[in-house]
Amino acid sequence: MKLILTAAVEKLGEPGDIVEVKNGYGRNYLLPRGLAIVATRGAEKEIEEIKRAQDARAIRDLDHAHEVRQQLDGLEGVTVKVKTSEKGKLFGSVKTGDIADAVKAANGPTLDKRNIELPKGYITTTGNYQVIVKLHPEVNGKVNFSVVAE
């Protein structure tokens, strides 16, 4: 069975890879869990679009990682606006995707939300925070941001 992976599967491949698997594994495990889609011409074109978007987000090499870290260090005015109670407690929490969107909105580089490490799990109150972004195995960047009520 020929499938296109939509998520990383250990010992099989990364998102966008076209893989050949046994029928039972594809039908009973990969497809029901949303880890893959059946490979068709239309799906292959869609995967090409996804790969182009991933390449735009990806850190190409060590020099590029240092360049992105310098952009993050010089970045100011990163704010995440959230709905809060009267006491400043959030309805929900700030997630890595929210931080990546806030960095992009502050004219920063495009970050992959999976590379952002939140301090102690989730952020559930307003205030100033700092997160670490893994840009490369040898390079980590830091993003300072504030969580404010709408």
From TrEMBL:
The keyword Glycoprotein does not apply. PROSITE patterns: RIBOSOMAL_L9. One of its GO terms (cellular component) is ribosome. Pfam families: Ribosomal_L9_C, Ribosomal_L9_N. It comes from the Bacteria. Residues 13-40 form the Ribosomal protein L9 domain. Keywords: Ribonucleoprotein, Ribosomal protein, RNA-binding, rRNA-binding. The keyword Transmembrane helix does not apply. NCBIfam families: L9. Binds to the 23S rRNA. Belongs to the bacterial ribosomal protein bL9 family. PANTHER family: 50S RIBOSOMAL PROTEIN L9. This is Large ribosomal subunit protein bL9. It comes from Corynebacterium guangdongense.
